[in-house]
Design goal:
Layout: H1 2-30, E1 38-40, E2 45-47, E3 66-68, E4 76-77, E5 90-92, E6 100-101, E7 114-116, E8 138-140, E9 148-149, E10 162-165, E11 172-173, E12 186-190, H2 199-202, E13 210-214, E14 220-221, E15 234-238, E16 245-246, E17 258-262, H3 271-274, E18 282-284, E19 292-293, E20 306-308, E21 316-317, E22 330-332, E23 354-356, H4 369-373, H5 406-409, E24 413-417, E25 423-428, E26 433-435, E27 439-442, E28 446-450, E29 463-465, E30 471-473, E31 482-490, E32 493-504, H6 511-517, H7 535-567, E33 573-577, E34 585-586, E35 590-591, E36 599-603
Parallel strand pairs: 2-3, 3-5, 4-6, 5-7, 7-8, 8-10, 9-11, 10-12, 12-13, 13-15, 14-16, 15-17, 17-18, 18-20, 19-21, 20-22, 22-23, 25-32
Antiparallel strand pairs: 1-2, 24-27, 26-30, 28-31, 29-30, 31-32, 33-36, 34-35
The structure holds 2-acetamido-2-deoxy-beta-D-glucopyranose (7 copies).
Length: 605
């Protein structure tokens, strides 16, 4: 009996459910749906996409949650256009011909969360257009032709979190354009016709966490471009085609975890602006013509985990380039001009998990042994590096090598200095001396020079190491004498060759030269090497001095000759005192010396 009642009850409930469902179905069938639209009553969606509509259709059900009006030819929105759709969450008007939106067009959309107006013909957004959208979270106005953003345009959008305004023609963004966007977390802005970063306008966005700026026509990113953006975590700067550098304080005030500067014209890593970003985890400098990553200059980025520089002009990553970056686990330097990647460039190869090194003209030799050995632990994302410069390994990729072959295949040859006959050069003071040094080895060794004190000689200065490997000593001085060492080194070791240099002091060691340098210095003083003139100037001055001295003396003689003739008395000697004007020393004629008295005696005819 009890069972029967239960069964009966169950039947009743079933019938009731069927009835209810039937009513529901009937309701759905009766749901008003505007012509050229498809309505889905279950999810309360109205899809009018591609319906050849020239204006917003009437009769959109009041309880609709989503209205899709994309791919139509709607040109204008009048005010209160959507007034009764108080339950609408999502409105999409992308891909229309919208050129004008009246003030308060969206009034009444109390629940609206997303509004998409991308790919239309909008040139201006009047203040008040967005009135009433107090809950809006996402606004997309990308790919329009908007020229200016006026003060308070977005003042009603206090809940807005994501705002995309890429690909417009902004020529002016007013200082308070973003006033009222107190909840904005992410902004993408295309600023191709602006000449400056809209720093003041951005300063209104106090809780912004992500900023994407595209296409700014700047050559240098100025100091303090992003101050007041205290909470910003992600900054993306891309397609600034003329930007060649970042000012030292351009990123001042930021505490970023992710920084991307791509498709610009940077020729060096912006070491100085990066230094304060100690919380940075992700750094991407791809598609910039950067040639070198210098050693030990990124060490402040303690927390960096990813470094990307794809498609640049990298020729070399110096050893210790990533020194101090103990968390670096992703390194992507694909599609550059690297011939190798030294083990010493990264702080710890054990931490490295992902490496992009493909698309580089790699020389497979002993310098890459470490990497081939670590290949089981490193993810190349399906693009393992390939050898390209050594003939027998051309085209091999890193996964082709068998473990046993490695030490035979990936080899280096120690450098050997060529023409190694000991050189012993003697020269006079003031001459230029060049020592050549060339070396062979695999990889091609680099040649450097050590001075007699065993210090490295730099490529600039009077004594310098030339790029072709030679050592040049200009205006050689006696103190330059000594043994210089040419060192050729590569990954396999080094070879060296000592050469010696003897510089003879100028023979004209007289008080005269000393007098020129400092009138009070005693003759024969040791002031030669710090002569304040260079030798050429000295020679010219001396020659001019000699000629003028000689001509005045001759004139005196002639005058005296006539005077003595006139007197009738012949004097046979004359003593001439003179003030010395210059020293003469000429390597062709030998040295002319003067007596210390400053006078000399001449026989007259
Ligand atoms: C709306 O309709 C278009 C064209 O018929 C279709 O491609 C699109 O997927 C539809 N969207 C939804 C949310 O149903
Ligand atoms: C904005 O810049 C683009 C490309 O530089 C140019 O084609 C366009 O005419 C500019 N627009 C305005 C309004 O200056
Ligand atoms: C990029 O910089 C180089 C010089 O560093 C310059 O010659 C070139 O014109 C620049 N490119 C652009 C697009 O400004
Ligand atoms: C910088 O950001 C990190 C995390 O992203 C945070 O822990 C740290 O407190 C911030 N520092 C300052 C000075 O705001
Ligand atoms: C390196 O970056 C390029 C371009 O973004 C990407 O295609 C490639 O997969 C990356 N490689 C690795 C190993 O991350
Ligand atoms: C290197 O250059 C210097 C000056 O340009 C020249 O005197 C020297 O002979 C060159 N050395 C070699 C090995 O070519
Ligand atoms: C040359 O190699 C030796 C070991 O082979 C090393 O001790 C020395 O420091 C190297 N010299 C230079 C200048 O690299």
């Amino acid at each position: 009996m009890l069972e029967g009642t239960a069964a009966h009850l169950w039947m009743c409930w079933r019938a009731f459910y069927l009835l209810a469902a039937g009513v529901a179905l009937a309701c759905e069938a009766r749901l008003p749906c505007p012509p050229s639209c498809r309505c889905n009553a279950a999810v309360l969606e109205v899809n009018c996409s591609g319906g050849q509509l020239t204006s917003v259709p009437n009769g959109v059900p009041q309880d609709a949650k989503l209205v899709n009006l994309t791919h139509n030819t709607i040109k204008t929105l009048v005010n209160h256009q959507f007034y009764n759709l108080s339950q609408l969450f999502h409105l999409d008007l992308s891909d229309n011909l919208l050129a004008f939106i009246e003030v308060e067009a969206f009034l009444g959309l109390r629940s609206l969360l997303t509004l998409r107006l991308a790919r239309n013909q909008l040139k201006i957004l009047s203040v008040g257009v967005f009135a009433g959208l107090k809950d809006l979270r996402l606004l997309d106005i990308s790919s329009n032709k908007i020229l200016v953003l006026l003060d308070f345009t977005f003042k009603d959008l206090a809940s807005l979190e994501l705002f995309t305004a890429d690909d417009n023609d902004f020529v002016f963004i007013s200082r308070q354009a973003f006033a009222g966007l107190t909840g904005l977390k992410r902004l993408a802005l295309d600023v191709q016709n602006l000449t400056a970063v809209p720093t003041d306008a951005l300063a209104e966005l106090s809780v912004l966490r992500s900023l994407h700026l595209h296409q700014l026509g700047l050559t240098t990113l100025p100091d303090y471009s992003f101050h007041h953006l205290d909470l910003l975590k992600e900054l993306v700067i891309s397609r600034f085609p003329q930007m060649e550098s970042l000012s030292g304080n351009s990123l001042f005030g930021l505490n970023l975890t992710s920084l991307t500067i791509t498709h610009s014209n940077l020729s060096a890593v912006p070491y100085t602006p990066l230094r304060p970003l100690v919380y940075l985890v992700y750094l991407d400098l791809s598609f910039n013509p950067i040639s070198y990553i210098q050693g030990s200059l990124l060490g402040d980025l303690l927390r960096l985990q990813e470094f990307h520089l794809v498609g640049g002009s990298l020729l070399r990553i110096e050893s210790a380039a990533f020194k101090g970056l103990v968390h670096l686990k992703v390194l992507n330097v694909s599609r550059n001009l690297l011939t190798t990647l030294e083990e010493g460039s990264v702080q710890s190869v054990d931490v490295l998990e992902v490496l992009g090194l493909d698309g580089n003209p790699l020389a497979c030799d002993c310098r890459l042994l470490w990497l081939v050995r670590r290949r089981p632990y490193v993810d190349f994302y399906g693009c393992p590096p390939t050898c390209s410069t050594s003939v027998q390994l051309q085209g091999w990729n890193f996964l082709d090598f068998a473990a046993d072959d490695l030490s035979n295949l990936l080899t280096c040859r120690r450098p050997r200095v060529l023409n190694r006959k000991p050189e012993d050069v003697r020269a006079d003071q003031g001459h230029t001396v060049v020592f050549d040094c060339s070396a062979e080895g695999d990889p091609q060794p680099s040649v450097s020079w050590l001075n007699p004190q065993l210090r490295h000689i730099s490529p600039v200065g009077r004594i310098r190491a030339l790029t072709n490997g030679s050592l040049e000593v200009r205006y050689a001085q006696p103190l330059d004498s000594g043994t210089y060492i040419c060192v050729a080194s590569n990954a396999a070791g080094n070879d060296s060759l000592p050469v010696s240099l003897h510089i003879r002091a100028l023979p004209s060691k007289t008080h005269f030269q000393t007098w020129l340098v400092s009138p009070s210095a005693p003759p024969g003083g040791s002031g030669n090497h710090n002569l304040p003139f260079d030798l050429k100037t000295l020679l010219i001055a001396a020659t001019i001095g000699f000629f003028s001295f000689f001509s005045s003396v001759s004139l005196c003689f002639i005058l005296m000759f006539f005077w003595s003739k006139g007197k009738g008395q012949i004097k046979h000697t004359a003593t001439i005192a003179y003030v010395p004007r210059s020293a003469v020393s000429n390597s062709n004629t030998g040295a002319t010396s003067f007596k210390e008295t400053g006078r000399f005696t001449m026989k007259l005819i």
